[in-house]
Amino acid sequence: MNYRILFFYAFLLFYSYFSFGQNLPQSYDLRNVNGANLVTTVKSQQGGTCWTHGAMAAMEGNLLITGNWTNSGEVGEPNLAEYHLDWWNGFNQHNNDDANPVSGSGLSVHNGGDYRVTAAYLARGEGAVRDIDGQNFNSAPARKDSAYHYFYPRHIEWFKAREDLSRINTIKQKIIDHGVLGTCMCVGYWHTGNIHYQPPTSTSEPNHAVAIIGWDDNKITPANAPGAWLVKNSWGVNWGDSGYFWISYYDKHCGQEPQMGAVSFQQVEPLQFSKIYYHDYHGWRSEMEDIREAFNSFPASGLDWINAVSFFTAKDSVNYQVIIFDTLINNHLYDTISKISGFINHSGFHTIDLIQPFLTSPNNKFHVYLFLSAGGQPIDKTSYVPVLLGSQSKTLVTSKSNPSESFFRHSNQSWQDLFLTDSTANFCIKALGNPYLPLQPTKPNGDTLVCNPLQTNYYTKSVSTATGYNWQIRPTNAGTLVGADTAISINWNPSFIGKAVIFVQAANLNGDGAFSDSLNVFVHRVAKPNLGSDTILKASHCLTLSGDTTGLQNFWSNGATANIILVCGSSLSSTYNAISLTISDSSGCSASDTILIELLDDTGIDEITEKNFTLYPNPAKNEVNIVLPLNISIVSSLKIFNSTMDCISEIQNLVPTGNRIILSDLQLSNGVYFISLQYDHRTFIKRLVIIK
């Protein structure tokens, strides 16, 4: 053997020993994750549709791992229509919206495609649709139908393990996090038993798509080092090991081919957007590698509620910035409507929710600007597309563009129309939303303020022709939405402060779009003051009580507004005195605390304290135990006072059981109360907090 090759494989073996399984299991099978099967049934493809099966197997797996299939009301296991993608991907002789005529040129139907073709189809909102909606191999199913259920991946990411397998753990983690991955291989002479290994020295290109569902670091293969991917095929359950087999980590293409090696379809969910603005019908076909700044201009077709954008990134580790502009005059962008920025770890397709959704103006243009820090700007253009990737011949697929659709510039120079550089090209920048048809609000009406919320009351929107409602909250860490249909409540994040936007979209029974509306909720929080524990104050002593010193307003029950007040026993006229403080911010949000002060002569404190009672639990919900001193045979009076010392309940002549009295089924709302007991010719009082 050539010593260089021997050294290379020795290095791989050494690397695999130290890198495989660091913080990851040595073997993993999505068919049994803590007893759950996260892989859908093996299918049997017709024609050259392996690429559609690889993609849909990955999307179905993600729907299982997230639960979004059942959460959206579907039954059974996820089952998406491979042949709807096969017919309506837009690259083939059956249909290409960018061609004239739209049929007759491009790829042959049932004879190949790839995951970028799939991404273009999904990004346009053409699908995926369910198997029961659009699955027909022999003739084209309807392209669109109001009865179809559409599913959309918010992200599609491309991975490569690299020749030294330095990125293999990234791929493994994506399998754990997001489920099945699409991949590829070359069907040929390299299959032994149920194990496939095409040496890197082979020149044969991939010609088949399959799906990775797990791995085994110790699996022996014909390669010089162990380790293999567990793979789902689309040739039926009678092939291989009930439709499954292994591919070596060191295979030439599986996990390695840049466009087909390992592709993850993530956050697959029911399509939330019925209006998608785009110019790039064929998605990511090439890149302008030296361009960081680009924008697409879109003429608004009506009053649309735009709440997301999507784009492709050609490299890993990319900073992005999106700005929506309202005006383009003399080659300059003005009037910012919305903007968002962030960081993307992995190359691929990405959908980003806008922090500030906006309404388009009918008959006016809006402009979506995109800055990408690395990899250049992906573009759609007329290009040669191979059948899968192994075809010796490539098919020309026509794309089209128009003047004043896509623009770019170098380093803050003047904007240039991309059409003048390539009359078939457009940037892969989209705006996503729904037609705006206002809902009838029933509660609340307009922006609202909530103070120190744990849970708010219902936000209700209803419309007579709606068939279902989708609620969202932004930012997503503001709280959790509870409920569905016409009403929801919000469990707020205790640390959230500021503006939250509540969105609702409702499917229209007439099938002509969706209703949508939004509500701004301003969350203010005022920290509860702390006056300390209830206390006893001698007539000859004074007590200092501190309020808020951060600039909020102080309102004391004795009429004072200072930050600090002095309470002296000589000024108290009652035996039991409740002193309350309410602090309030400029919006009117407030919080309160109360302290109970018992006024005593300068003698007898030890005796009275010894004879006082105790309460538990405190805070309480619906029941509280009163523990009396020993040898108390009767309680002549039990009173319950509210925080302002108004008596709200009284019971006389209670006989304790042992030394206990149990108050059950308390019909008290959350707050501070005082329990007063009269026994042994004295009155004793304790504070009780109710929290339900």
Task: Give the arrangement of secondary structure elements.
Layout lengths: L2 H17 L7 E3 L20 H17 L1 H4 L10 H7 L26 H9 L7 H4 L16 E9 L8 H11 L2 E5 L5 E2 L2 E2 L11 E9 L11 E5 L11 E5 L13 E9 L4 E3 L8 E3 L4 E7 L4 E10 L4 E12 L2 E13 L3 E12 L5 E8 L4 E4 L2 E4 L7 E4 L8 E4 L6 E2 H4 L4 E2 L1 E7 L4 E4 L4 E4 L7 E4 L3 E9 L4 E6 L2 E6 L5 E11 L5 E11 L10 E4 L3 E5 L6 E4 L7 E5 L7 E9 L5 E11 L4 H6 L3 E3 L7 E4 L7 E7 L5 E8 L5 E4 L7 E9 L2 E9 L2
Parallel strand pairs: 5-8, 26-32, 33-38
Antiparallel strand pairs: 1-6, 2-9, 2-16, 3-6, 3-9, 4-5, 6-7, 7-8, 10-24, 11-18, 12-17, 12-21, 13-16, 13-24, 14-15, 14-17, 18-23, 19-20, 21-22, 25-27, 27-30, 28-31, 29-30, 31-32, 34-36, 35-37, 37-38, 39-40, 40-43, 41-42, 41-44, 44-45
- Rg over C-alpha atoms, rounded to the nearest angstrom: 34 Å
The helix/strand class is mainly beta
Instruction: Please indicate the percent range of residues in DSSP E strands (runs of 2 or more).
Output: 35-45%
Q: Number of DSSP helices? A: 9
Overall pLDDT: 88
Note the quaternary state here. Answer: single chain
CATH architecture call of the largest domain: Alpha-Beta Complex
Number of strands: 45
- CATH superfamily assignment of the largest domain? Cysteine proteinases
- Tell me roughly what share of residues is in helical segments: 10-25%
